[in-house]
Amino acid sequence: MRMIAPHIKRAASGVLDFVLPPRCPRCGDRIDADGHLCGACWGKLRMITPPHCVRCGIPFEVGELMDAECGACLRSEPAFDWARAAVIYEDEAKSLILHLKYSGEGAGVPAIGRMMAGAVAAMPRMDVIMPVPLHPRRLFSRRFNQSQLLGKAMSRHLGIPLDCFSLERKRATPSQGQLSRKGRKRNVKGAFAVTGDVHGKRILLVDDVLTTGATASACASALKQAGAGEVGLAAFARVKGPSG
Q: Which domain holds residue 141?
């Protein structure tokens, strides 16, 4: 097959942008390039920056608390080695996630994936990316797994292969929304199974929202029991004050 000359590609892209100009996936305003948010929507997101818990990534209020673990991680050590999220789960982030989950549109995935890749840029390089899986019944009703879409975007940004098949959710679980920290942990205990070879691999789990870390910890526990060497987590948004 003949290769398309770069100048033809650029011309075609320019025509497409003229006919269908890039739009902000959150508000629909015109932007310069696809895969970004407009300045107004970007400005409403609160990025997570140090200081934060070195284990779960929850931000600290006190500036001098550097390289420390939060009280929740000290009381009950999560199975994952570290977790990082791009933004605080507030109104704008919540709107982006809900639109992704329930509208069936993936317009926000490139922008969200880029922010998530940035959140883990300073962390150890991992061998493979794995999205947190949905149970087959939930996947059938929703038609897609938003974490898989985000994992695919991160795979492109980070140059790390994506594996959507070696980790599965073998047990359907009720929604975590109204459960306490302990209730969430009980709810997902033993819910995941490893079906592929993960021995010695450094695995980056991907999920949309991190609350208490119970789901990610259950995934990491299954992966480590199967021989994974290191398990990290990348999320788009982090609930700042998880329930007890």
A: 45-238
For the beta carbon of residue 88, count every other beta carbon within 10 angstroms. Answer: 17
The CA distance from 139 to 130, in Å, is 16
| Count of domains observed in the chain | 2
CA dihedral 108, 114, 116, 117 (to 10 degrees): 150
What distance in Å separates the CA atoms of residue 19 and residue 13, rounded to the nearest whole number?
10
Q: Phi first, then psi: what are they for 72, rounded to 5°?
A: -65, -40
Q: What is the pTM of this model?
A: 0.86
Q: Does 139 share its domain with 185?
A: yes
How many angstroms separate the CA atoms of 170 and 133, rounded?
A: 9
Nearest to 205, CA basis, from 216, 191, 193, 221: 216
Question: Which residue type is seen at 219?
Answer: C
What is the Cα–Cα distance from 102 to 31, expressed in whole angstroms?
24
Q: How far apart are CA 199 and CA 214, in angstroms?
A: 23
Q: What is the pLDDT of residues 4-37, one digit of tens each?
A: 555 444 444 444 444 478 888 888 899 888 878 9
**Chain-centre distance for alpha carbon 178:** 21
Domain identity same for 217 and 100: yes
**Which tens digits make up the pLDDT trace of 98-125?**
888 776 667 889 999 999 999 999 999 9
Q: Are residues 88 and 147 in the same domain?
A: yes
The verdict on 68 and 96 lying in the same domain is yes
Are 57 and 71 in contact by the 8 Å Cβ rule? The answer is no
